[in-house]
Amino acid sequence: MNRFKRLSPFLGGCAAIAVLALLLVVYTLTKPVPMAGTKSISIDVEYENGVNEHYQITTEAQFLLEALKSIPNFQIEGTTTEEFGLMVTTINGKRADYQKDGAYWALLCDGETCNYGVSQQAIKDGERYTFQYTLPSEELKK
What we know:
The chain has 142 residues and is an alpha+beta fold. Helices cover 30% and strands 32% of the residues.
């Protein structure tokens, strides 16, 4: 019985290393792969008051943030972290203040929630990106 107690931390460490290795393999297989060459994409901004703006651009950029920076009169601001890149707080002067009322800018790709942030989202020809000003639902506020 004593021998199993000594092996337990060793086996736990091996299991943790195996899980980390598996997660690394999954990330490597599913990470966004940028597409080289010219791409035509559209960007929509849906504001809280129902006003929408539409941008159609052709770009050589590989990631969404690079493409957004090339749009005249389009302003995007936020805080940047090494791990997640730009966390968008303000688009064209409209701030989504999560601390104040739970509002945030949701990023959608072809109507589905993006798996990556604006800095890490690889773009492909023909995709439509939407920044949607989002407030928490009434159910979440309870």
